[in-house]
């Protein structure tokens, strides 16, 4: 297995996002295969936290690439994003769901300790807030270097290629620019989040 290097993250978020599919998020004994992500593109994207420029909250989004941008939302949930793109452009990929590969019991315990409800394995790490709970990701991980693993989190390539024809759809849980086709997922995975009221398509090319 090989930890993704800084070069991997230097492309634009829309390019990096589908390439992250089937990579592994690793923290200690907890390992999950990425099955769903969303790209966000700074000043070009009304749904991005960086649409109106740099703030204290979003500074990490502006680079350097290969870090985690972690933010608190709805006053109750953490969400984690992989910072990518050229330094200074505020590009990021939201980690939306993974398939548990190892350490499912540790993930379950971490979610319960965070106040989460675990109904079954399928829903254990499905959705960005559940993902953060399962991997114990919170504000202390904002800015974590996921190449050096300075806070124990890395993303690894174990040789499983991204899908040649990933599923593509509009983004979930936002109002602005929700129709941008920047959500990418592994077709057929039961660990992918449902898309209520929106049709997903497989094998398309993002604009």
Description of the molecule:
This protein has 207 residues and is α+β, with helices and mostly antiparallel strands. The protein has a single domain, classed as 3-methyladenine DNA Glycosylase, Chain A (Roll), CATH 3.10.300. 12% of the residues lie in helices and 27% in strands. The protein is built from 3 helices and 10 strands. Strands 1, 2, 3, 4, 5, 6, 7, 8, 9 and 10 form a 10-stranded antiparallel beta sheet that branches. A hairpin with a 3-residue loop joins strand 4 and strand 5. The longest helix has 10 residues. It is globular and about 40 Å long. The C terminus is likely disordered.
Offer a concise description of the structure.
Helices cover 12% and strands 27% of the residues. The protein has 207 residues and is of the alpha+beta class. The protein has one domain: Methylpurine-DNA glycosylase (MPG) (3-methyladenine DNA Glycosylase, Chain A, Roll), CATH 3.10.300.10.
Please describe the topology of this protein.
Elements: E1 2-3, H1 13-20, E2 24-27, E3 30-41, E4 68-73, E5 77-84, E6 91-102, H2 104-113, H3 128-134, E7 154-157, E8 167-169, E9 183-185, E10 201-202
Antiparallel strand pairs: 1-7, 2-3, 2-7, 3-6, 3-9, 4-5, 5-6, 8-9, 8-10
